[in-house]
Queue: 3 jobs
Job 1
Amino acid sequence: MKKLFCMILATLALGAALQGCGAKTEAAPSAQPAETSETGAAESGITAEKAYEGVNNYCHERVDWSYAEEDPESMYVAMGEESETEYQVIFRSYTGSLTYFYVNKADGTTRMTTYVPTLDIEEDEGTIQINDYLK
């Protein structure tokens, strides 16, 4: 029983110390104008590729990826579901926590939530502007 308690306590401490991609909240700047095609119709400002690239860049800036060198499956960024208004991109930390990024297709405003499956804890982590992480 004591060993189980220590394991749970260690998991909580590690999860608190390494909150996926972090909880840094940044104010979202005003939306950038949508690009226009040759026909003049407005297109979506953010594509699925841009959403993935921005989240991937954000996570690589904020998290030490050396843990994934030996076991690449322990940390990754992957595309999730897509709705009419946003893309979902998922970051899995080596701790097992999942950070969900919901990228607004129109302006790139991205809200983040972290879920720790072993503890069934979910919390909002704030917002970022995905355009700030596109190269």
Note: The chain has three helices and five strands.
Job 2
Amino acid sequence: MITPDQVATLIRDSLPEAEVQVQDLTGGGDHYQVLVVSPAFAGRTLVQQHQLVYAAVREAMSSQAIHALALKTYTPEQWATAQPS
């Protein structure tokens, strides 16, 4: 089992400027919803953004410590406009 904090650390290690929020969806420690806001996503497609995050957690996913990962990724500018006023 991997904790939400450990998932966030893996992502921040790969994307140091990222803001990361991780939620355990099932309480079982293997299905997560992850929100990542990073300037590294600028100029990248949604698929490329997700690939960056998946690369950060690749080992945890291949060992099945993470079974499912629901991603939402934003640049800081996109995140600012996505927030309600």
Note: Residues 26 and 32 are 8 Å apart (CA to CA).
Job 3
Amino acid sequence: MRFLTAKRVTSLALGFGILCFNNCGGWWEPSPTRTMLAAPPAAPLAAPEDMATRRAIQFLEERVRRDTEDFSAYNRLAALYLQRARETDNQEYLDLAARAARASLTVMPAERNVGGLYALTQYEHATHNFVAARDHAKQLTELDPGKSDSYLMLGDALIELGNYEEATITFRQVQRMNNGSGAQTEMRLARLATLHGDHTRASHHFTNALALALNMPVPSRDAVAWCRWQLGETAFATGDYETAERHYRDALTTYTEYRNARASMARLRAARGDLAGAIEGYEGVVRHLPDPVFVAALGDVYKLAGREREAAAQYALVEQIARLNEVNGALYNRQLALFYADHDMNAEEAYRSAVREYEVRRDIYGADAVAWTALKAGKINEAQTAMRDALRLGTRDARLFYHAGMIARAAGEVSAARDYLQRSLALNPQFDPLQALIATRALEALS
């Protein structure tokens, strides 16, 4: 079996490993944790893990070449490929992980090879095949009921598919198994708190997760930087740009090339009116990581800076990247639909795409995508229905409030429109460089 292949032309952000969760349902009550820290620890520079990982991959690749029946080596190789995919944002490593996991399961079936099934489930989650990830995670909990990681993966998939009550029950089961919350559980609880509108509790959970991650014998640079970045995202969501910047800088101190934090710093510069700094920041990110979300953001700041031709080039690139990667599991369907809606392009196509995804992945942000694209397609009743679904958790998200306000305005509900737009801009006045400007103008027109 050959694992070394040429690099693909495009390297893409995949958003997996430690995932952002979209939750819903108004019944959830937060569980207490063992410790609530007042502030995150200081940010030391974490040791890079790249060289050791590359050497381990080379060793294991040679090992499976010599012995194609070594399923244990395939499992370890798959795990390392997944790690490299997180570190490099290179799609090829995901493909290699899938091949290694499937080779392992071919040699030894899942009933006697939970490691192979575990790696395959991680791959499925990374490529947004959440139905398969859920089913395989359930199988893992049956094959190895004492392993909490299987339940965490199951909860992750359930959240992405909109089964929120079952997901929360699953995470609480992990807490019982572990006599409390570890770093991975704290991360999930933080996301749940955010989606229920409790940013303060979310910050506490992320801080706990960070402290627990730093307390590991060999802290993971990836996990530590991710927690710091999420603390920044939590602050940014409430318009606390100073605190957000501090956390983003801490993430970059831990992991200098952490591109999520670099992109967030660019967005923060745009929020502060520094378009030149935002352009410079986004250009640096997309040069190495042409993720459609970041490419679209670069186009927006070009547009605001009056650089229309360059903005148009970035918008064209968004479509090109998304369409080129449909064969890789349609990772960017939702992002492309929202991009179209934000920029008043291909309204019917965007709506159909959002509806198609929501039929399977019924999370609140999927409902929001249906609502926003329905509005742009002139389907006001559908937009109102989907927006109620998107807001049912009580999530305090400026973008959700903005969408709700624009939908209410289109429906002639002036008072509701004004209320939602005011809530959006009060929560985070610069939640998006282009859309916040539209929201401000819409609110002024309603006053």
Note: Residues 15-31+42-180 form a domain with the Serine Threonine Protein Phosphatase 5, Tetratricopeptide repeat fold (CATH 1.25.40.10).
